[in-house]
Design brief:
globular, 6-stranded mixed sheet, Neuraminidase, 7 helices, Methanol Dehydrogenase, Chain A, 4-stranded antiparallel sheet, mainly beta, 2 domains, 55 strands
Length: 824
C-alpha cells in the first residue's frame, strides 16, 4: 500500500494543475486532516517510512519552559508552515512550525475568550475557553483560520459565555466575529447554556457549520447545527434540530462532534434524549420520548436546507442510558463504496452506506436484538473518532468480548477493522494493547488515531506518542484471538487469531501531559508530528534522532579530523530519556519510569549488561544527583531519595519520601543540598526532615518570584532563570514572610532559554544558539559584563526542547551537575 501512496504523491507533484491541492493536503488543515474527518495524511513522508519513525524525537516545545500556558484540550492544525491551536485558558496561538516560536496570539494577554458564567459542570457553561481545533479557509481571497469560543464582550448576551466563531488572518488580524451561535443565560433558574466546545468548524462552499450541544446535560439542551456565511460570519437559517422542531423547547440530541462532508451531504452523530437517563436493567424508567427523536443517531442532512436525508439509530429510547454518540462520523472511500463509520459511547462501532444510511456492519456483531438491548448502553468512554486508511478503520472500540467481559476491556486498545469484510471472522485485522506502561488503560487513556501510509499515530493519557505499523507495511510477530476473552490457542469460531501490534516508536512528551483527551489527535504535516498536552505545551516531533538511548563515556582521545574514536558505549536502550551523575556514579531514567545505576561493565557488541535497576515507578519524570545522593521527582510532585536498596524482582523498596507537593515542576541537587521549583515560581531548600505520613515539613522557602522557569545548582551555588532571561544567584538569605532578598542578578539577556551548572561553573544558552560561561562579575545596574561566549551554533537554541537546550551547553557532567527540566 505504501508504493501506491508514494505514486500518488509523485503524480501530483509533477502535475502543475494539482500542485495547489497537494500543498494543501500535506498540511493538516482541520480536525482529522480534512472535511471527511478520516484522520489520514495521504502524502508520503518520513512519517510513512517504518525505518524513519523509529528515530522520532521531540524537536521543539512551546512554551520552552517547564510551565505551560494553559491546558490544550484542542489539537493543532498546520497551515503554511504555521501551527495554530487554542487553549482552555481562552487564547489562540500561532507558532512557527519549524522552530515553535510564538508568532502571535489572540486576543492579547489579559483578555481571554471566556465568559463570566462559572455555573454548571463539564468546564462550566461559559468559561470553557477553546476546546476544539481550528479550521483553515479562504475568505475574500485571503488565507484564514476559524475557531469557536465564548465571547466575553457584554454585547454577546451580557458576556456570560455565549459563543461565536472567530475568523482571523494568518497574521492574527480579525476578519469577523460571527453572530452568536450558542447562547448562555447564567441567571438563576435559566435554561439556555449551549456550547460549541467539542465541534470544530466545517467549511463547505460559502458556509461554515458547527455543532451545538450543552455542558454535561446540566440541563440537557436541544441539539442543532449552527451555520454562518463564510464571507461575513452572519447566521444563515438552518432548520435542523435533533428533537422536536428547532426552537420549540424540546431537549436532547446534542451535536458533540465535528461535522463531516463528502461535498454533497453533511454527516454527524448526536447525543442522548432521555431525561433522566434509563440505566440497566432498564426497569422503572421515566420520561416521554420527544417527537421526532433523532438523538443517539448517525445522521446525514442536506447541506443547503438542513433536511434529514437519513438517520441511523441503533439504541432505542427505551435503552437510553446516556450512550451519547460523541465521536462523530468518518467518511471512508473504500473498495466497497462510500461508508460512514463511527463508534458509540457504549463501545459498539458501525459502518453505514453513505447514500441511504443502511447498516453495512456492526462491531461486535450482536445484531440489534435481545442480547444487544439487554447490554449496557450508558455514559461510557468510547468517544473518539477512528482513522480511515483505504479499507481499514482504526478505532478505539469495545471489541468482540464487549458483551462477555464488559465495557472496559476495550479501553486502552486500538482495533483495526476491515471495513469491506463480508464475514465476522474477517472483520478484525489487528489489535494493539496500549495499556500500562504506555497509558493508564482507562476510558480516556488513548486519543483519536491518525494514519499515513499504514503507519498509525496515537497519544496516551500518560504523555506517550505511540507509533504502530500495519502488518502490510511492517511484519508483525505475535498473534492473539480476535475476541480477547480467549487465548490464541483456544480461539473458537467465528473468532480467529489476528496480529497483535507492538509499538515501532514510543516518544514521551517532556511534560508527561495527556495527549489522549476527548478531541486530542496527532497532526501529521510535512513529515512532522504536532501535539498539544493537557499540561499546556505544544510539541513538534520529527525523525532523525538515530542515537536515542545510546550512552557513551569519553575515554580521553580527542578528534583527529573527522575521526573521533575516544568514546566507549555503556548502553543502547531506546527507552533512555535522561542521564545524570553524582560523585562517581552514573544513573539513567527510562520513559517507563525505571531508574538504573551503572555498575561498571561497558557494552560488548549489542549486549550492555552493566546496569542495576533501582526503581520501576511510571510516575517518575526526573532524576538528579549530588554528593552520591540520588533523588527522583514524580508527576504528582512527590520527591524521593534513594536509600541504597536496589530492586528485587518487581519490589523496589529503597526510597524515602521527602515531599508531596503537586506544584513541584523541577528539582536540583549539589553538594548535599536539594532544591525544588514550584509552578508558581517558589523555590525551596530541603532542610533534612523527611515526610511523616502526609506531613512533609522539611523545606525552607528561598524565593517566590512567578517569573522563575528553571533552577540549577553546582558546588555551593544555586541559580535561577526567569522567563525574561534574567539569571540570579542565591546569596544565602532565605525568605522572611513575603520578602526574599537573597538573590544577586548575574544577567538580563531576553535571549536566554536555558541554564546548567557544574563544578561551580554556570552556563547559559540563547535562542540563537550562542552559549556563554559566567566569568564571575555580577551585574551593575543594567550592565552585565561577566559572560564569555563559547559557541554560536544556531541549531543549539532554535526549536529545541528545554532538556535538549540544556544538553547543548558544554557543562561537564560531574559531581553537582543538575538537570533543570523534566527530561524528554
Amino acid at each position: 500500500m505504501r508504493p501506491v501512496l508514494g505514486w500518488i504523491a509523485r503524480l501530483i507533484l509533477c502535475n502543475p494543475v494539482l500542485m495547489a491541492a497537494a500543498h494543501a493536503q500535506v498540511d493538516w488543515q482541520t480536525y482529522r486532516h480534512d472535511s471527511a474527518r478520516a484522520g489520514m495524511q495521504p502524502f508520503a513522508s518520513d512519517l510513512s517510512n517504518p525505518a524513519k519513525v523509529g528515530t522520532l524525537g521531540v524537536g521543539w516545545s512551546f512554551p520552552p519552559t517547564s510551565n505551560g500556558v494553559g491546558a490544550f484540550l484542542a489539537s493543532p492544525i498546520v497551515v503554511n508552515d504555521m501551527v495554530f491551536i487554542g487553549s482552555q485558558d481562552g487564547y489562540f496561538y500561532a507558532l512557527d512550525a519549524a522552530t515553535g516560536q510564538l508568532k502571535w496570539q489572540y486576543p492579547p494577554p489579559g483578555n481571554p475568550l471566556k465568559g463570566s458564567c462559572g455555573q454548571g459542570g463539564n468546564g462550566t457553561w461559559g468559561q470553557y475557553g477553546i476546546r476544539s481545533s481550528a479550521t483553515y479557509a479562504k475568505i475574500g481571497g485571503q488565507d484564514a483560520v476559524i475557531f469557536g469560543a465564548p465571547d466575553p464582550d457584554p454585547r454577546a448576551d451580557g458576556g456570560q459565555g455565549s459563543a461565536r466563531l472567530f475568523a482571523l488572518t494568518l497574521g492574527g488580524g480579525l476578519i469577523w466575529k460571527s453572530d452568536i451561535v450558542a447562547h448562555v443565560d447564567c441567571r438563576p433558574g435559566s435554561v439556555p447554556h449551549e456550547r460549541i466546545a467539542f465541534s470544530s468548524p466545517l467549511v463547505l462552499g460559502n458556509k461554515v457549520y458547527v455543532g451545538v450541544h450543552d455542558a454535561g446535560d446540566d440541563p440537557i439542551q436541544q441539539g442543532r447545527v449552527a451555520v454562518v456565511d463564510l464571507s461575513s460570519g452572519n447566521l444563515v437559517p438552518f432548520p435542523y434540530a435533533s428533537t422536536g422542531t428547532l426552537g420549540d423547547g424540546t431537549r436532547g440530541g446534542g451535536v458533540w462532534n465535528s461535522l463531516a462532508t463528502d461535498g454533497t451531504g453533511v454527516y454527524f452523530t448526536t447525543g442522548n434524549t432521555r431525561i433522566p437517563p434509563c440505566f440497566t436493567p432498564y426497569n422503572n424508567c421515566t420520561g416521554s420520548e420527544p417527537s421526532p427523536n433523532h438523538g443517539l443517531s448517525m445522521i446525514r442532512v442536506d447541506k443547503e436546507t438542513g433536511n434529514i436525508a437519513w438517520s441511523f439509530k441503533p439504541v432505542p429510547f427505551s435503552r437510553d442510558g446516556d450512550p451519547d454518540w460523541a465521536a462523530g462520523a468518518a467518511i471512508m472511500s473504500t473498495s466497497c463504496g462510500e461508508l460512514i463509520a463511527s463508534v458509540q459511547k457504549d463501545g459498539w462501532s458501525y459502518a453505514v452506506n453513505a447514500g441511504n444510511g443502511s447498516m453495512r456492519w456492526q462491531f461486535p456483531s450482536t445484531g440489534l436484538g435481545t442480547a444487544f438491548l439487554n447490554a449496557v448502553h450508558g455514559d461510557d468512554d468510547y468517544k473518539r473518532p477512528g482513522a480511515a486508511w483505504n479499507d481499514v478503520l482504526i478505532i478505539n472500540t469495545g471489541g468482540e468480548s464487549l458483551v462477555q467481559d464488559g465495557i472496559g476491556k476495550g479501553y486502552g486498545k486500538l482495533h483495526a477493522l476491515n471495513a469491506c469484510a463480508t464475514t465476522e471472522q474477517d472483520r478484525v485485522r489487528w489489535i494493539a494493547d496500549l495499556g500500562p506502561p504506555y497509558s493508564s488503560g482507562g476510558g480516556y487513556s488513548v486519543g483519536a488515531p491518525t494514519v499515513t501510509g499504514g503507519i498509525v499515530f496515537v497519544g496516551t493519557d500518560q504523555g506517550h506518542l505511540i507509533v504502530l505499523g500495519d502488518p502490510s507495511v511492517v511484519p508483525a510477530a505475535e498473534k492473539l484471538c480476535s475476541n480477547i476473552h480467549y487465548s490464541p490457542s483456544a480461539c473458537p469460531p467465528p473468532y480467529v487469531p489476528v496480529w497483535s501490534l507492538k509499538p515501532l516508536a514510543d516518544v514521551l512528551m517532556p511534560d508527561h501531559g495527556s495527549i489522549a483527551w476527548l478531541r486530542k489527535e496527532a497532526a501529521l504535516a510535512k513529515g512532522r508530528v504536532f501535539v498539544g498536552t493537557l499540561n499546556g505545551h505544544v510539541y513538534m516531533i520529527q525523525s532523525g534522532f538515530s542515537d536515542v538511548g545510546t550512552i557513551w563515556r569519553y575515554t580521553g582521545t580527542p578528534c583527529s579530523g573527522d575521526s573521533c574514536p575516544g568514546w566507549q558505549m555503556l548502553d543502547n536502550n531506546p527507552k533512555t530519556i535522561s542521564i545524570i551523575s553524582g560523585g562517581d556514579q552514573l544513573f539513567q531514567l527510562h520513559n517507563d519510569g525505571w531508574i538504573w545505576r551503572y555498575t561498571g561493565t561497558p557494552c560488548s557488541g549489542d549486549s550492555c549488561p552493566g546496569w542495576q535497576r533501582l526503581d520501576n515507578n511510571p510516575k517518575t519524570v526526573a532524576i538528579v544527583a549530588g554528593d552520591n545522593q540520588l533523588y527522583q521527582l514524580h508527576n504528582d510532585g512527590w520527591i524521593w531519595r534513594y536509600t541504597g536498596t536496589p530492586c528485587s524482582g518487581d519490589s523496589c523498596p529503597g526510597w524515602q519520601r521527602l515531599d508531596n507537593n503537586p506544584k513541584t515542576v523541577a528539582i536540583a541537587a549539589a553538594d548535599g543540598n536539594l532544591f525544588q521549583l514550584h509552578n508558581d515560581g517558589w523555590i525551596w531548600r530541603y532542610t533534612g526532615t523527611p515526610c511523616s505520613g502526609d506531613s512533609c515539613p522539611g523545606w525552607q522557602r528561598l524565593d517566590n518570584n512567578p517569573k522563575t522557569v528553571a533552577i540549577a545548582a553546582a558546588g555551593g551555588n544555586l541559580f535561577q532563570l526567569h522567563n525574561d532571561g534574567w539569571i540570579w544567584r542565591y546569596n544565602g538569605t532565605p525568605c522572611s514572610g513575603d520578602s526574599c532578598p537573597g538573590w544577586q542578578r548575574l544577567d538580563n539577556n531576553p535571549k536566554t532559554v536555558a541554564i546548567v551548572a557544574g563544578d561551580n561553573q554556570l552556563y547559559q544558552l540563547h535562542n540563537d544558539g550562542w552559549i556563554w560561561r559566567y566569568t564571575g562579575t555580577p551585574c551593575s545596574g543594567d550592565s552585565c559584563p561577566g559572560w564569555q561566549r563559547l559557541d554560536n551554533n544556531p541549531t543549539a537554541g532554535s526549536g529545541a526542547t528545554p532538556a535538549r537546550r540544556a544538553a547543548a551547553i558544554p557543562a561537564r557532567v560531574g559531581s553537582g551537575s543538575t538537570i533543570t527540566r523534566a527530561p524528554e
